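>> received
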Amino acid sequence: MSPISILPADRVFVLTGAGISAESGLPTFRASDGLWAGHRIEDVCTPEALDRNPWLVWKFYSERRESCRAAQPNPAHIALAELEQRLGDRFLLCTQNVDDLHERAGSARLIHMHGELSRSRCEAGCGRPPVEDHAVYRSLDEVGRCACGARLRPHIVFFGEMPLEMNRIEREIARSTVMIVVGTSGSVYPAANFVHWARQAGARRIYIGPEAPLNAAAFTQIVEGNAGEVLPGLFQAE
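>> returned
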């Protein structure tokens, strides 16, 4: 298809979801059988799960860290990093993914709204900032402690918790003129609402993925196909 133009006055907000990481071999958040990497979401991704069985939660995320290390950024990650290089501070990428594939592809203007695998934070919520943590733990005793003495927990937004940096995300969408959404089903909120916020701001709204999302009617353009095949060369920045 013909390249999509991004004009000198445009501000671009990009949202990526599990589909872009799936093309690098990482499992999507919720598969057709309702499981994430073989586990019930309720057992590994809720505050109640952490209280009930902290080792199962830590074991799960340690395994995710191992999977992430083995994965590599794909052409879609690289294409978005290259678009950022061309647009500079007129570009912001918000990802629902907790892996670091965007960073490894070269993205820098980046928000992880659901947290990051490579960080941990205080389980007691003492307010200290997250710490870098790449460890693959083999027992709960190995898990580090916060400076306050409480055990660390994965820096992941569990179900029932508020996504990160929502005020900044709302501000950036409100002043965007182009929204690009890649590889997300349109079923997880509040991210599924972002396209509606962009519509209210008058932005062009472009979706890229192998099939139309549930909120397809809110987009001005749907580009069907694997992101790694479609994104490279799709946008022409003037």
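>> The longest strand covers residues 115-122.
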